Amino acid sequence: MWFPVRGRRRRTRRHPAQCAARRRVAPRVQRRLVASLRRTAARAGTPPAPGRRRELLLVHRAGAVRADLLALASAIEHTPDPDPEAVRTLLRLLTDGCDSPLYNERIHPSELLATLYYARRRICPPEAGAAIRPSAPWG
């Protein structure tokens, strides 16, 4: 005779993308991302310190999209529930040294523009009245 275990429900397996889409962004992660975006924009505006031999951040690329980084930080800060996928993409952009166009010069700059465009579209959709403007051209 089979008896079900009390207190446990049978769980159905879901696709990981469905589970990730339902998760909300924790306020702590949201604050950390806003601070990181602003810190990166601030570092883009200043040259590296004289004692530093090498700067990991590609300052010329970050400087070209400085206004976009600050606009995204403001939008994320004022959005009560930002899109989790866009937040994950921005965190990866700011922290992944190998695959991020902010840190790896071998990755084409258009990848940075595409990533920021994607994040802007997910966080501030055009129907909300947010103007989506192209980023500054590379010089």
Summarize the structure.
This protein has helices at 16-22, 27-45, 59-64, 66-78, 84-95, 109-123. With 139 residues, the chain is mostly helical.
Strand and helix map with partners:
Blueprint lengths: L15 H7 L4 H19 L13 H6 L1 H13 L5 H12 L13 H15 L16
Q: Mind summarizing the main beta sheet?
A: none
Rg, Cα atoms, Å:
19 Å
Average of the residue pLDDT scores: 81
Q: How many DSSP-defined strands?
A: 0
What is the molecular shape? globular
| Oligomeric composition of the shown chains | single chain
Question: What letter string, H or E per element, gives the SSE order?
Answer: HHHHHH
Protein architecture, described:
There is one protein chain. The chain is mainly alpha-helical. About 50% of the residues lie in helices and about 0% in strands. Helix 2 packs across helix 5 and helix 4 packs parallel to helix 6. It starts with 15 loop residues before the first helix and ends in a 16-residue tail after the last helix. The relative contact order is 0.14. The model has no long low-confidence stretch (mean pLDDT about 80).
Which labels suit this protein?
139 residues, mainly alpha, 52% helix
